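Many introductory courses stop at the sequence. We go one step further.
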Amino acid sequence: MDDPEITNPLAKQLHERKDAEDAQTGKNLLEKDFIRKGQAEALDQLKGIDSEIAEYVRTYTAQRPATAPHLRHVPNRVIADMKFAVTFELIQRLGESQLRVIVGLQPGAAVMMAEIPDVETTEWWFQAYMDDGGFVWRDGQGRKFNNSQIVNSAMRALEKLL
């Protein structure tokens, strides 16, 4: 910012630094507001995810051959042949909400199976976020995803285990 009243180079540099800090503070406040709005919407979005996974299981079950693995939907979870699961868990934290998606052995597999297979667990974290473009889930790199993208990715990861 060129201010004609500031002629001292040091004063001008301090003034420019103050302007930059003020702009960054504004960006930080806006970012916090988007995260807060995302948190307010996160539970409804989780219900939307649960509806999508229920529909996925219904469609899969209607189309699957008899030899294909059986999928079962329980709230926020898909269980495959009582061995594997996809779990969608909403974590509420102070000032934000995060969606944790886990694909791997289902939690009770050790009780139901004589021999537990060596299965790599896939885990994703997404932050609830709502800006002027609407609600999205953001990953750790700031990439934005909608509910369908997350459900489709999770179900593809589950299919690899079957």
